[in-house]
Amino acid sequence: MDLARQQAIHFFGKGRNERIVPMWSQTITELKRWLLELPHSPTAALIPNRHGAAITRFGVKQRLDCAVKKARQACPSLKNRHISPHSIRHTTAMHLLQSGVDMTVIALWLGHAKLETTHQYMQADIEMKREALAKLPSLPTAF
Fold this sequence. Notes:
Layout: E1 8-12, E2 18-22, H1 25-37, H2 57-74, H3 85-98, H4 103-110, H5 115-135
Helix pairs in contact: 3-5, 4-5
């Protein structure tokens, strides 16, 4: 990882597909600070578990559950919300879509091999718009 030349991280996701994710400059700063605390070894895990090995998907879920439990104390609206790594991924995709980011860019970001896989977000966005429209008062019928 060369954080001086690029502000992105490369990793392998499901199906061993390589993902390249851009990062904010603040994230790069924090990551550089974190790297100073890690053992200087080319095989050291970037995010280690308590035994020093790379954190697993299960470990990520456990850490997220701890963070959500703490957040619920300060934000009661989270009480009945299901929050998982997948829901964060889905929410990020929806925010990108609602911000006008092209579907092909979102597909690349998510590591989808086919654009059709990303199409579910477009369908969800249309449904959200329908729900918002239904909440508006009806227009008068006479002109």
